[in-house]
Amino acid sequence: FRNIEKIKNILNNPRMPVQIIFAGKAHPADRAAHEIIKHINDISFQEGFSGKVVLVEDYNMELARKMVQGVDVWLNNPRRPLEASGTSGQKACINGVINFSVLDGWWCEGYNGSNGWVIGSDNYYDNEYHQDNADSESLYYTLENRIIPLYYNRDSSGIPREWVKLMKESIKTTVHRFSTNRMLTDYMNKMYAVAMKRVEKIVSSNYGCAINLAEWKSYMEENWNQVSICCEKTMNQLKEYKTSAHEPIRISAKVHLGTLDPSNVKVEVYYGKRYDSTGIEEPRVKEMEPVEKIDQSTWFYTTELKLPDGGEYFYTLLVVPYHPDLINKFDTGLVKWAVH
């Protein structure tokens, strides 16, 4: 309701009317949330909003179940990056409800460009007022120019074919990834089973492997400042390089490890298609291999990339510690990036 006249016109279009249903509860100590709910309630009684904006009281699981089954669009617009997860949107898509959300929480992973809509972008704002303005303008524009016309675009039988297509795409691309079954399977295979094997290994070694790992971590922290990456200055200075999709691209670098052995680290290429002036979408990682020892502390690493499709790509190089007993490669908190 940042632009009250704008949203009033959208909701009261006689050819394509819209109704927005709000429901939820605020924490007893969250005074700001209480004020928001009161503001919505007050608006729902104003001229032009009666029957168009509805605030349903006594929100609970039974009401939530009906809402995720009965609405057409699931609107989720917290201020990024404050969304904890967004599980309500995951439940909605199971029922063919299409998500319209900020790029935060689960929607960062769930949105693929053709299974719903996004509010705003994932740009970082250091001013909340400007961020709210940008998100609200995006919300109004998308609602008025994309969502509502698509819903009311019906064939001779009264069926919104393109809308149904979007519903199916939403179900197809999200339900199998965002489900309790998938979650529990991942927890079991990636965490619980791994943790049980880890405990067994620690106990059977009389805690020797845990002591060795702790000593190795201390050694890596003490010597990490010796690590640096020197990119190869081929391929037009590594700034611009033209190629075709699926054609091999050789990436090489000299990596100074100091007293560390190559077995203690992983050197990787981090790359992906350009999203804006600084970011990439769907990032990928490719490990590099040490192929030559240049001197006592420097190694020549290389790998080959094949880009999946056309477009402009960004990439950089990084070094992370490696030990077979690490929980994950970022467990130490140490990483060294290539410096331009």
SSE blueprint and pairings:
Blueprint: H1 4-11, E1 20-23, H2 31-44, E2 53-56, H3 61-70, E3 73-76, H4 87-94, E4 98-102, H5 107-110, E5 116-119, H6 128-152, H7 161-174, H8 180-204, H9 208-223, E6 228-231, E7 248-256, E8 265-274, E9 280-287, E10 289-293, E11 298-306, E12 313-321, E13 336-337
Parallel strand pairs: 1-2, 3-4, 4-5
Antiparallel strand pairs: 6-7, 7-11, 8-9, 8-12, 10-11, 12-13
Helix pairs in contact: 3-4
In brief:
The chain is of the alpha/beta class and 340 residues long. 36% of the residues lie in helices and 23% in strands.
How would you sum up the global shape? elongated
What can be said about the biggest beta sheet?
4 strands, antiparallel
> Going by CATH, what is the homologous superfamily of the largest domain?
Glycogen Phosphorylase B
The fold-level CATH name of the largest domain is Rossmann fold
Mean pLDDT: 90
| SS elements, strand count | 13
Give the count of helical stretches. 9
Question: Structural class of the helix and strand makeup?
Answer: alpha/beta
Give the termini distance in whole angstroms.
Answer: 44 Å
Radius of gyration: 26 Å
CATH top level of the largest domain?
Alpha Beta
What helical percentage do the residues reach? 25-40%
- Estimate what percentage of residues fall within beta strands: 15-25%
- The name of the CATH architecture of the largest domain is 3-Layer(aba) Sandwich
Strand line-up in the sheet with most strands:
6-7-11-10
Low-confidence sequence ranges? none
The tally of domains stands at 2
Element-level helix/strand string: HEHEHEHEHEHHHHEEEEEEEE
